Amino acid sequence: MQIKHLLIPAAMIIAAAAQAAPPSLDIASEPLTAACRAANPRTVAAEFEGASLLHPAPPPASASAGDLFQASTNPTDWSGHFSRYTLLPGAAGLPSTPTAAWDAGVRLTGDATNAPSPAPAARKIFTAIVQPDGTLDMIPFEWNALSAEQRLQLDQAPSSTIPDALGEQRLAFLRGDRTQEGKLFRARGGVLGDSIHSTPVYVEPSVARPGVIYIGANDGMLHAFNAADGAELFAYVPNALFSSLNRLADPDYSHRAYVDGPASAGEAMISGAGKTVLISGMGGGAQGVFALDVTDPTRFSDGGGVLWEFTDRDDAMMGNVTTRPQIAKLRTRTAAGVPVYRHFAVVASGLNNYAADGHASPTGKGALFLLAVDKPRDAPWQLNVNYYRLITPIADATLANALNAPVLVTDRAGALRYGYAGDLQGNLWRFDFTGGAPWVGAVGPGAGGAPLFVARDVDGKRQPIAQQPLLAYADGGGYLVLFGTGKLIEKADRTSASFAPQSYYAIRDSLHTPADIVTSRNQLTQRILGGDAGMPAFSIGGANMAYDSMGWYVDLLQAATTGERSIDSGVLAGGEVFFNTLLPGADTCDKARKRTYALNVLTGLAERDSVVTRLPVPASIEQAIIGRISDGYRATPSLLPVTATRTPRDPTGRARLYRELAVADLTPQGMVAAGHVQVQLRAGRLSWREVGNWRELHGAAK
Question: What pTM was estimated for this model as a whole?
Fold first, then answer.
């Protein structure tokens, strides 16, 4: 038999590869930073402490130092707790060991002496019937209120294609009824689900509402708890999750994500009235976000309730949102010389928008979505009418891609001007909103939509950016965009085979026209860590910043061997950037550790006169906080005020305010400090906008 050979032109192969979707990511629902086995084989695994929120007490804080809101999970049955701990002032003004105030999981479940509160049938739980065009009706999460499709989905046994008519009992189980646990359905330690990757959001009290804390959970709900006593005010079950709700009651339940994404709240104008709106991603649970009117959570169903859901069914470029959505005011046009503004949810497309799930984007490009907060419930989603989509090109179809949350810059009117965001292919994008809708040409800032910078290691390999950047003013004008590289999304990311060189960057955007693109590391000033990866702390050095430097960078020490990476945003204070990096355990089932860094924003160095850690023995030794290693991973260092000193005014009338901060981890078990830092703050009257690194800029201007 004669075999014929077909010669395919190389150009056709390249074109085909360019159209192929990137590899999908296997998003983990379990806590990848926690130990995945018990420390003692004879005991069950300890509870995993998930997301937390430190809420300082408003001044004067004489009776209380604030509150710590903490999620925790029992991985033996994936029941959850969400607790408030009161912080009382201790030595040197630092918080003492937190005191438990309430546990929302215990309230919902009940115990030997207290009935569930509220009772399962009395809980105010809502959902929505969403039509294919995005219009919706909010309904109570009750059997008779559901649509026929929703009832059919709950009637479906996970292991069968034949309806089993247990849907109404499954719904009761989801509401907290426990009569069928250990019989038809699985047994639970508590009715509140776990919160692994969700972020708690605190909304301050007002005339219309108490202080409320919101958090998503893997019981399929976004919960609203009264911050004073932990009582559940309401809960919301996104319609996008209905197809998988039946699995939650399965006796053979295998943990998965539901409402497992970040959230944020902000103010927006809707129908001429100011409203408080919460926007939440669903993380690995579903591809999309939802919006709730939480102006008065005590009257959620009366005050507007569910505003909308937006998923990959509405736009195939929407993915799993795992970084924070935000609310922003944008100038859409100008009428008779007067700017016209509208509020939008600013949402990055996130992970796996190209996954073959029936609503796949074919190319794997990223997108920044602007979703009108004021879209009426009975209006369909329409591109360039009530939502906009800014597309970022894909550079390499062989690599996973995902655009993550931007850091936003507003003008004097509070309107969005710029956004800076990174993606998993190492691209750092600038979005320019100085024009009006639909913001054609906003992606860049380079010619043809080129990014501001591409993060690459010393060998030219792209480094993933999986976090929201930070932003500071640059010396000489423009901005410094600060971020680290590395990802922890899949189980495979914990293995040594995935370890790669990672870095932390500060990239300058001069805001010149045409844009000054940072084309390589050669335009940046290198910072070098000294020491050994096994040491408890590092040193850092490097040359002075040249006048034409476009920023600085530091390569994490021996990251290709240790697996060290930066996966979460840090915090800016007093001209310094504080961030934690993650160190996987020696075994993939070991608990992760972290290193804490404190660097000068403008120089990337450690300023000995402003950032030091005072070691207890000997007391005279001071060492910079560079790579201080500690057990257990925390996303962001907590900065807790210790003392404040104000100098007398000099002959020019200028005063200086020095504040000492403890760089610490605050947990229900107490506080563990990596060290103390001293930062200089501006004293006296502040302008309309506080500049975090004003001291360095002021010094540079002399």
Answer: 0.91
